[in-house]
Amino acid sequence: MKAVGLLEYLPIEHEQSLVDQEVEKPKAAGRDILVKVEAVSVNPVDTKVRSPKDQKEKKLKILGYDASGTIVEVGEACTLFQPGDHVYYAGDITRQGSNSEYQLVDERIVAKKPDNLSFAEAAAMPLTTITAYEALFERMHMKRNAEGATLLIIGGAGGVGSIAIQLAKLANATVIATASRPETKEWCLSLGADHIIDHHEPLLAQLQEKGIGEVDFILCLNDTDGHFKGMAEAIKPQGTICTIVENQHNLDIQLLKNKSAAFVWEFMFTRPMYKTADMIKQHELLTEAAELFEQGSLTHTLTKILSPINAAHLKQAHQTLEKGKMIGKFVLEGFEKGGSV
């Protein structure tokens, strides 16, 4: 089968940073399903995994942590799906990724694709939806009816921010998103953000100017190091800050002490990585999200698409994400004919 991956960890401009290769088609066993991949999305995690490091792989390492497709085979222990089902999922960072014609994935982190979304639209949504959902409702414990609560999203126009705005508004929270360009401001407002502030300026002062002041929740999707002091100032006493972005320097957690404020991480691969007892929660939340898409309560965030899925197009997607200016999600659809069947 056709696949795109790496053998060395190189800058994206390098000819061998991502390569096309034929690899053996896997077989489903246990709780694994085998999916014929129809579309994939590219996320910052792809670029982080691929980033230069002194390491070489003996066999092709396949990236890709968002996909939609059709099940062609199920393991003997599977109970949730059958061949022919159309599904969407984010996968497991410890296993081979979705940038291949066929992919094995544990059924407990997969859900049926929303009927009203194309494969490309559906592929844009799993990783960001899981991340936003877990961050809001599981890490920060926002109530599903959060009327009166205030949420600041730092980096509102990216993939996670785009769905987090929508989920928080469904929970009736007041959402303040950061954006600095006219097009990102317009995007955040179109998704339901109540207020926009600029992440290049002091956060609390801007919140005070809008009559909001300190907020109950902060979801940091950009530059944890650079925003930590500002977040500590802007969080309410007993509030919660959640970040998905690795820090590069030690954070002064004592800034949160007097406020008894919580600081938590969200990493959507935790459940599949550690095979947690509640791993099936990702199947459940993606199933709930599919219903919300079908009802029109959630909108997909696909903004750019290329076809077919190959190394050249994936390099283009990686380059776009590394520039840090992406609005919404970047999707690749379909493999060229002539691969495995």
Automatic annotation (TrEMBL):
The record's comment on protein family reads: Belongs to the zinc-containing alcohol dehydrogenase family. Quinone oxidoreductase subfamily.
- Say if the entry is tagged with keyword Oxidoreductase: yes
Residue limits of the Enoyl reductase (ER) domain? Answer: 5-332
Q: Which Gene3D superfamilies match?
A: Medium-chain alcohol dehydrogenases, catalytic domain, NAD(P)-binding Rossmann-like Domain
Keywords of this entry: Metal-binding, Oxidoreductase, Zinc
Protein name in UniProt: Zinc-type alcohol dehydrogenase-like protein
One short Pfam name that applies is ADH_N
Q: Does the keyword field hold Oxidoreductase?
A: yes
Q: Which GO terms describe its molecular function?
A: oxidoreductase activity; zinc ion binding
- InterPro entries assigned to the protein according to its UniProt record, in alphabetical order: ADH-like_N, ADH_Zn_typ-1, ER, GroES-like_sf, Lipid_raft_assoc_Zn_ADH, NAD(P)-bd_dom_sf
Q: What is the lineage of its organism?
A: Bacteria, Bacillati, Bacillota, Bacilli, Bacillales
Write down the superkingdom of origin: Bacteria
